Amino acid sequence: MKKPNYAIIWIGTLLLICLHQDSWFWDDHQTLIFGFLPVGLAYHAAFSIVAAIWWGSAMVFAWPHDLEALAEEEN
Amino acid sequence: MTPLIVIVCYLGLLLALGILSSRSFRGTSKDYFVASHSIGPFLLLMSVFGTTMTAFALVGSTGKAFERGIGVYGLMASISGLVHAAVFFLIGIRLWVFGKKYGYVTQIQYFRARFESSGIGYLLFPILVLLVIPYLLIGIIGAGKTLLPVTAGAFPDLFPNLATPQWAGGIPVWLTGLVICGVVLTYVFMGGSRGAAWANTFQTLVFMVMGVVAFVLIAKNLGGLENASKVTIQINEKGQVVQPYRWDNASKEQVENNPPKVVGKLVFEGESPEPGTYSPRPS
Q1: Which is the most buried residue in A46, B41, B192, B276, by most CB within 10 A?
Q2: What's the pTM?
Q3: Does the beta-carbon distance from A40 to B90 stay under 8 Å?
Q4: Are B257 and B246 in contact (CB under 8 A)?
């Protein structure tokens, strides 16, 4: 059974942690996206979608079947 | 009185769910603590969401958004999307493997076996309990502090609330806390983790539906999404909380307040707040 590449998961997660440190839009109270959505709120809404896609992909492509098999093994 | 009736019905439904879930109880500790591993992905997702959505999030985020801006709501969603999933994927699956393989149900069982020490179990038990208490208390206090103003005027003779005359007649914080504790303990004791998962799922569905309803109604009454973003209050250079625009219901138009209407004032440390002002933490 092929072991998933956990290094990619960790690198992607660290990248997401960096992107979450929103010091670029947080204090912008004037810019509105689509005429109504404050840019700080829009950024985090978009980030949430990206995070959901990232973790969804991790479940599909890097699910730890090896660990699952370990759990099923007899002691 | 109407909000109180709605809340009583809501708590009644939670109790009914607890009683209903107790009928599925199989009489084992495994069933009580982990519902015999029968909680599927939908109930698990709803439970995690419902567990997070306590007063800590609902009341706390409202206050924080008032202080720091609407981006706080986005921040809550994005940090949950990042951290919850990361903990499940990177830590949770591994713990689940050990739990399933060796029959661990609680954290303490795992740590006792991992370090082959009963002492670590005795050490961890009070620490884990103590760490949970502040989080639980925030929920109880938050519920009490929300219900007091909401029910103000309902029972003026029973609860004069001399310390908070503006909310005379409202249900006091201690009584709300007592009722909430009673309801939660009942459905948890009766239904175990299955009862808690069912109750959390119900609450999450209510939160989601009512969240959408509140969003639509508030935006509509502020004159639509675009206007809603403009009529919100701002803090000017003098530290005054001002409303530069308002929505005129008669003409159905957004009207500029010239000069901007002052609705409050920032109160800094050492200053006495005047009635009608609020005191967010100065940044």
Answers
A1: B192
A2: 0.73
A3: no
A4: yes
Q: Return the pLDDT at B272.
A: 56
Distance between B74 CA and the closest CA of chain A, angstroms = 5
* Residue B187, H or E segment: helix B173-221
Token pair for B221: 């009454």
pLDDT at A60 over 80: yes
Instruction: In whole angstroms, give the CA distance from residue B101 to residue B86.
Output: 22
At B282 the pLDDT is 42
Distance from CA of B273 to the nearest CA of A (A): 26
Contact A4, A11 (CB under 8 A): no
What kind and span of H or E run contains B158?
A: none
First to last CA, chain B: 39
Structure tokens at B65: 């958004």
Size of interface A-B (CB pairs under 8 A): 85
CA dist., res. B185 & res. B192, Å (int)? 10
Mean per-residue pLDDT over chain A, rounded = 86
| Domain assignments of chain A as residue spans, ordered by start | 6-72
Reference B23, options B196, B191, B182; nearest CA is: B191
ipTM of the prediction greater than 0.90, yes or no: no
For residue B77, give the nearest of A44, A59, A72 by CB distance.
A44
Give contacts of A47 with chain B, Cβ < 8 Å.
Answer: 74, 78, 81-82
B252 vs B221: CA distance, rounded Å: 10
Burial B55-85 (b: 16+ CB within 10 A, else e): bbbbbebeebbeebbbbbbbbbbbebbbebb
List chain B domain ranges.
2-221, 227-265
Cα(A45)–Cα(B71) distance, integer angstroms:
9
Residue B283 CA neighbour count, 13 Å, CB half: 7
Strand partners, B254: B247
* Residue B18: closest CA among B206, B194, B179: B194
Assess A61–B contact: CB distance below 8 Å, yes or no: no
Q: Which of B233, B228, B279 is nearest to B260 (CA)?
A: B233
Find out whether A54 and A12 touch, Cβ atoms under 8 Å.
Answer: yes
